[in-house]
Hints:
disordered C terminus, 25 helices, mainly alpha, 78% helix, 2 domains, single chain, elongated
Amino acid sequence: xxxxxxxxxxxxxxxxxxxxxxxxxxxxxxxxxxxxxxxxxxxxxxxxxxxxxxxxxxxxxxxxxxxxxxxxxxxxxxxxxxxxxxxxxxxxxxxxxxxxxxxxxxxxxxxxxxxxxxxxxxxxxxxxxxxxxxxxxxxxxxxxxxxxxxxxxxxxxxxxxxxxxxxxxxxxxxxxxxxxxxxxxxxxxxxxxxxxxxxxxxxxxxxxxxxxxxxxxxxxxxxxxxxxxxxxxxxxxxxxxxxxxxxxxxxxxxxxxxxxxxxxxxxxxxxxxxxxxxxxxxxxxxxxxxxxxxxxxxxxxxxxxxxxxxxxxxxxxxxxxxxxxxxxxxxxxxxxxxxxxxxxxxxxxxxxxxxxxxxxxxxxxxxxxxxxxxxxxxxxxxxxxxxxxxxxxxxxxxxxxxxxxxxxxxxxxxxxxxxxxxxxxxxxxxxxxxxxxxxxxxxxxxxxxxxxxxxxxxxxxxxxxxxxxxxxxxxxxxxxxxxxxxxxxxxxxxxxxxxxxxxxxxxxxxxxxxxxxxxxxxxxxxxxxxxxxxxxxxxxxxxxxxxxxxxxxxxxxxxxxxxxxxxxxxxxxxxxxxx
Length: 579
């Protein structure tokens, strides 16, 4: 039997399937603007619309698995609510019965790969000719992801179709009807396509290999077997997607049980509804539709209760990302302020870790041990995951600050808290700057221009020195030493910025860089320098006393005045500031 199972084709299909699912969901998230969300919300607003949309789309695509996976993607992207998602899934189970009618009426089996190729072709071509991250680019990714999703299902089906073709259903006749249900489940789970397995069952019924009762039991099993594809798509995913997958399993499982228990009654009803002389194959298509419609009638009034049950069984796991605020009561302002100050220092460390990794700098040069966010997650976070966790950490900090503001505070305490929240906002604004110039740094790293490559290495050196300075500052015991070192750090940031401008102007004069490269370098340096300044300002408000903050600001004002005087003198001498 293993000779008939193409294992590599099966595994390749699984890889293409999961890759398509990831790209599809990512594209949906990127396109989830107000208009797009409003459209999806309108199509699925209310239970009847959700059921009708699921039925219609599945009837067109001829794949309830594909529609169910789309629902997973929409739920994962936060576009579709749980109740409406369940409604679409219920409708998809009715819509998928159209395939059985087509097979019964025309004797033609639609292949899912015939749908995947146009999506891949159009999506791939649009992707190549639209390199910018605009809406057309995201649409091309959506089409390509959906095409890969379908192609992956087709490959998985193809990997085991020879195995399915060698199954002799005639040898199963001594077993009870429950065994045929099990065969339908296993065969459909292997092929990831109920339409394919139902076509096989219809062919067996038409040729007289099985009775109508056996065929009905096999169809019940095939209906339940399609849940494997949806559960696979929800594997390792968010709680919301797991709830959708479980809802599909509950609906099809309970519907299958009711259909099996009432099998004789349903078969009698099929005989009553169809005129005499109608083929048994057409009767099997009616049976497939009938028990799915009855399942819809059974579950439709309970959609709200089912959604609440799933939310209870699979609640969203809210990971507490704070280290110092978790058990600190806001009713004691002094303790709360101290904890808030420590938490913002933690926020600064996590932000620096993101920056170091973005520029591929070994973080062990700054941090000897892993930081709390990764210790809590138990794994090394990607840049995207780390950025999202830092945002959530800042949200928890701000929430704590808001609760603390509700307490009775002295004027001095209120002003000190205000400075602390300014510090956290500066840290987050610096982080956002680094995120915005990530693509520029990746281009600089891959650039063939020696000057750009050298400047990229200087950016890395500038960041490494800044992180080293900022990381050691909180350990300084003497307030005056802390003040001087923080001011020196700021002046080094400014000095590095001036050197960059001077060297870039010289490179332009020497025609070492092109116009587009000039624009990218200048923009990246502006955001980079601004991010460095913001981090210094963040530690200024976090570590210095109010009197020192005032002295620090006056020192910066004097430095700017000196720079303006120097620039004016150079201009009167006929020299540029960079001379």
